[in-house]
């Protein structure tokens, strides 16, 4: 009984700390403010270059002549694997269940502004990447904070991020995701969590043995499939409720500025509630500003940091503007949002069931949760491993992979309320040093971005031309770095 009481008390303390960290006076204004600042400083980069970035990342897929461990497309899908997760299903429902349909509007705003933050951290990840003793490329906030910001302050920020990222990789990147997979399979297909744990232990361990190349190959095939399945189910629902879409869009926009009246099980929400929930859940969903995606971006084959930064920027667009929008519209058009906050856990499944039928609707959502959560485990394994190497040296790679794989089994077979609370806190602690770093290094980002896009606005320059550009501008970065 004492153990239970201690766990409950610890969960309460961590929950309070997390509420302060993710509250309206710290991380939310810092994340949103950084996105606004970078959007202005980069002259609306995410709006000016989105078409070019999508083409380069999804159609060109590879930056011929660039050095790196994986292709640009694999770096994109690895980052998407870690980002498109349970938050895109349950997180959206929670935002709408508490803040009303207007919360979705603020999720859009957060995503659009967050694209500037995602571009910036990916740019820096490549700009300051290095080769380790094994010849593998390594980069991310754990490197660019210490190398881009001179002196003890930069080193402090880098170590702060490194420790938080290692902790977060075992929490939000592993325990909670494995638990979501096991719960989904048990609820829908009655699979014993122990069986799920053993299968995941084998699958994750097999993939991780191959390192980032293996992760990149799996996610490049796996991620598009899981997104297509989920979006396909959502389109079927919206097709059957096409007549409600205009009214739903109108409600989303107007409620963002007027609040939402009580109806059904929904208790009503103010403008502040819509804003707070939309921003908080939007940031949690796309991870823009947290620095995690920069670790995958750094491993990409690219001839210039701007090129990979633009590809990585599309991750936030896909996550928030496409996947989150699909979830939100399905919830609003079917009327499932009226169930309120108490129904948030099952709201998306209820919405899909109303549109497709109880059997197929619930199954699509459950399978999507499994896919999204499993892919998140793979993406976060790489993030954690790179930070473990940074903290302890290259020898830590194999022990980290072994420990990470074992924790997958633990997550699948254990109740984890405390782990969810701790994971939220660790995620926020990752974002703090990274956001400070983005602000401090914004001048470098803006200057080199403008110079490169003036030279190659369509991202069509050949490797030899990019190399000559770097020489002519006396830029110390080279694609072989």
Automatic annotation (TrEMBL):
Protein family (similarity comment): Belongs to the alanine or glycine:cation symporter (AGCS) (TC 2.A.25) family.
UniProt keyword Cell inner membrane, yes or no: no
Cited Gene3D superfamilies: Amino acid/polyamine transporter I
PANTHER family: AGSS FAMILY TRANSPORTER, SODIUM-ALANINE, TRANSCRIPTIONAL REGULATOR, LRP FAMILY
InterPro entries, per database record: Na/Ala_symport (IPR001463)
One matching Pfam family: Na_Ala_symp
Annotated membrane topology: Multi-pass membrane protein
Subcellular location: Cell membrane
Keyword terms, alphabetized: Cell membrane, Membrane, Symport, Transmembrane, Transmembrane helix, Transport
Segments passing through the bilayer: 20-40, 156-173, 193-212, 219-239, 245-275, 317-337, 357-380, 392-413, 425-446
Domain of life: Bacteria
Name under which the protein is recorded: Sodium:alanine symporter family protein
């Amino acid at each position: 009984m004492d153990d239970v009481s201690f766990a409950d008390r610890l969960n309460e303390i961590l929950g309070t700390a997390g509420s302060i960290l993710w509250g309206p006076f710290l991380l939310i204004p810092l994340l949103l403010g950084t996105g606004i600042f970078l959007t202005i400083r980069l002259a609306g980069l995410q709006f000016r270059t989105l078409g070019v970035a999508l083409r380069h990342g999804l159609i060109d897929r590879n930056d011929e002549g660039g050095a790196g461990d994986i292709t640009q497309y694999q770096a994109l899908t690895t980052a998407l694997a870690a980002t498109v997760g349970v938050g895109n299903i349950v997180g959206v429902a929670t935002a709408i269940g508490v803040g009303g349909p207007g919360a979705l509007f603020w999720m859009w705003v957060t995503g659009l502004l967050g694209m500037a933050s995602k571009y910036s951290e990916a740019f820096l990840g490549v700009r300051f990447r290095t080769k380790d003793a094994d010849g593998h490329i390594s980069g991310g906030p754990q490197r660019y904070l210490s190398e881009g910001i001179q002196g003890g302050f930069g080193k402090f920020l880098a170590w702060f991020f490194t420790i938080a990222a290692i902790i977060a990789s075992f929490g939000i990147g592993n325990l909670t995701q494995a638990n979501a997979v096991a719960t989904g399979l048990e609820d829908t297909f009655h699979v014993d969590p122990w069986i799920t744990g053993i299968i995941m232990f084998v699958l994750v361990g097999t993939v991780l043995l191959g390192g980032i190349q293996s992760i990149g190959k799996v996610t490049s095939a796996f991620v598009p499939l899981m997104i297509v399945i989920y979006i396909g189910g959502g389109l079927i629902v919206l097709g059957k409720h096409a007549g409600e879409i205009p009214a739903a869009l109108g409600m989303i926009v107007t409620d963002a500025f007027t609040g939402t009246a009580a109806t059904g099980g929904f208790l009503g929400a103010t403008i502040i509630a819509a804003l707070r929930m939309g921003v908080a859940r939007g940031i949690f969903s796309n991870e823009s500003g947290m620095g995690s995606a920069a670790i995958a971006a750094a491993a990409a084959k690219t001839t210039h940091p701007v090129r990979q930064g633009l590809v990585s920027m599309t991750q936030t667009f896909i996550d928030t503007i496409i996947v989150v929008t699909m979830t939100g519209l399905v919830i609003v058009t079917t009327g499932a949002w009226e169930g309120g906050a108490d129904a948030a856990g099952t709201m998306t499944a209820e919405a899909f069931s109303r549109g497709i039928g109880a059997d197929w609707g619930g199954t699509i959502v459950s399978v999507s949760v499994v896919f999204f959560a499993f892919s998140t485990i793979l993406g976060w394994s790489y993030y954690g491993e790179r930070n473990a190497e940074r903290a302890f040296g290259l020898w830590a790679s194999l022990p980290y992979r072994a420990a990470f794989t074992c924790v997958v089994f633990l997550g699948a077979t254990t109740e984890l309320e405390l782990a969810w609370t701790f994971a939220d806190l660790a995620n926020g602690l990752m974002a703090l040093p990274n956001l400070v770093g983005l602000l401090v290094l914004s001048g470098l980002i803006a200057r080199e971005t403008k110079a490169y896009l003036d030279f190659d606005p369509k991202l069509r320059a050949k490797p030899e031309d990019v190399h000559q550009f770097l020489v002519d501008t006396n830029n110390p970065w080279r694609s072989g770095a």
